[in-house]
């Protein structure tokens, strides 16, 4: 699907076909026909578009060394996206996002899966800038990607804190599955953010920017936000590893406590069974000829059980 976007009063407006005012072509899950149309119309290398169809594509850039765009340029970064893991819990993956600069002043973005940051970028007022529209869009989209990472990281931190509160009573594996999904998310984040940082740092010396000094403040803010995400990811990954080890130990300990209580109760409940079995024998026994024998046997059984319970509690076994 190709969404043709123009900019009016700081807001993006869409149409089904290109016009003179079209500055941005937002392409999502392109068909073979749409891919061929974009390649033929804007003279693009095919891998600029098909690269994002591979979910494992690494961040990279091509053609940004040009002083002026005599051929299309590519900036490919990775963005976060929430999915459902095989264990049934929310997991954050990263997918490639291509930004293509055409020689006629337009920007083409290509994704193969829906992106939360892109929806937010389309609805947020576009900031006024003296930079050319292509340069402004690159920085604008890069900013939304970097803030998207930090937003997802805050959600992961909240989920981790919630799991910590369940440690005291947990005897199940569900929390372990959730921690495993959080660890996977953080590993994906660490790799993607570091790759994005490498590409974004190259923009400092990119020759396609008409005024190198004008874009530096915006790029600095993006890099600060991205480095913050990288640092947070690194710290959280270490914390979650420690929490995972602690979680496993606590779950095992809680299960041992349950087994200890059940074993102690089994001992207590065995006492009436033994006494009842003895006095159920068809031989001469104490109290056998007394009419109140059942009462006294019940009293002895109850007292013995209470004594055993007292001793078990004193030894912290019940």
TrEMBL record:
Annotated signal peptide: none
Record has Transmembrane helix as a keyword: yes
Membrane topology field: Multi-pass membrane protein
Keywords for this protein: Membrane, Transmembrane, Transmembrane helix
Transmembrane regions listed in the UniProt entry: 261-281, 293-312
InterPro entries: CorA-like, CorA_cytoplasmic_dom, CorA_TM1_TM2, MgTranspt_CorA/ZnTranspt_ZntB
Subcellular location(s) per record: Membrane
Principal subcellular localization: membrane
GO CC annotations on file: membrane
One MF term in the entry's GO annotations: metal ion transmembrane transporter activity
Family per similarity comment: Belongs to the CorA metal ion transporter (MIT) (TC 1.A.35) family.
Protein name, as recorded: Magnesium transporter CorA
Organism of origin: Enterococcus termitis
